[in-house]
Amino acid sequence: xxxxxxxxxxxxxxxxxxxxxxxxxxxxxxxxxxxxxxxxxxxxxxxxxxxxxxxxxxxxxxxxxxxxxxxxxxxxxxxxxxxxxxxxxxxxxxxxxxxxxxxxxxxxxxxxxxxxxxxxxxxxxxxxxxxxxxxxxxxxxxxxxxxxxxxxxxxxxxxxxxxxxxxxxxxxxxxxxxxxxxxxxxxxxxxxxxxxxxxxxxxxxxxxxxxxxxxxxxxxxxxxxxxxxxxxxxxxxxxxxxxxxxxxxxxxxxxxxxxxxxxxxxxxxxxxxxxxxxxxxxxxxxxxxxxxxxxxxxxxxxxxxxxxxxxxxxxxxxxxxxxxxxxxxxx
Length: 331
Ligand SMILES: O=CC(=O)O
Prior knowledge:
By secondary structure, this protein is of the alpha/beta class. It folds into two domains: about 130 residues, 3-Layer(aba) Sandwich (Rossmann fold); about 180 residues, Rossmann fold (3-Layer(aba) Sandwich). About 35% of the residues lie in helices and about 15% in strands. The strands form two sheets. A seven-stranded parallel β-sheet has the order 8-7-6-9-10-11-12. A five-stranded parallel β-sheet has the order 2-1-3-4-5, with helices on one face. Helix 10 links the parallel strand 9 and strand 10. The longest helix is centred in the C-terminal third of the chain and has 20 residues. The protein starts with 15 loop residues before the first strand and ends in a 13-residue tail after the last helix. It is an enzyme of class 1 (oxidoreductase). Its EC number is 1.1.1.79. It holds the Pfam family 2-Hacid_dh. It comes from Juglans regia. GO terms for molecular function: glyoxylate reductase (NADPH) activity; hydroxypyruvate reductase [NAD(P)H] activity; NAD binding.
């Protein structure tokens, strides 16, 4: 509506966006950034979700993803759906084959989060090697005057770092760790012609030749539980794993076992198999640094994300333009 237009806003006329549960951008910033839309908040309804969706089935053309999985069942209840916008980089919570089959368009975070996630990956690694969290707790508990010296850490420079998944997050991690004097190698679906880092097609071989593995890839059928005990044993007793991808890429039970039994040197984990639940055995281990899946959460990036989400909805629902961050659903 133009600035000089003084018609009353009729919210029923605004393009509608369904949200099943509030995603982090709404938890932090409410829904003001979607003020040009009518936001249909399923979680505010007293009705069971399937009844609520059945009532709105015909009118819902666009959906903003929440932490909830977008399953085939939910998609079936939304026959008019044409667009899914997710504020995530990962797509593992969306039934992609079904979206592809129905021709539903998807927009995601693209590389909006990559720098922040890479910062946390490096932060977790430095914390594990230099024991920052553990030293903090040592001081706070008043142990410095009584126990004296704090154990030695391990130097970051010179370490051989294997990056699992050299997408935009992996490349940001590589750039940062190269500046710290680390030696970078990577494994990926395919060798990247535009980088000179050594490429490994086998993760076990990458682990054998590395001191650290940083898991940056997305969760797919191929990467599910790809980091298993074989990989951990190949990395060795001093080896460190950092995970900023998805919990399910690592066999968590085996990771816990290797850490508890001293078969792995340490871990920095931002993601877990069964979030928000974290295996309690890890709480007692100083060589493990834990973070509540917050690698992407900076105020600056969340604001950029609100803009991207809004821009995608505006492009599709209002101005009939191409999506700003479309996901290519390859066959
Ligand atoms: O985990 C965060 C994301 O996928 O964006």
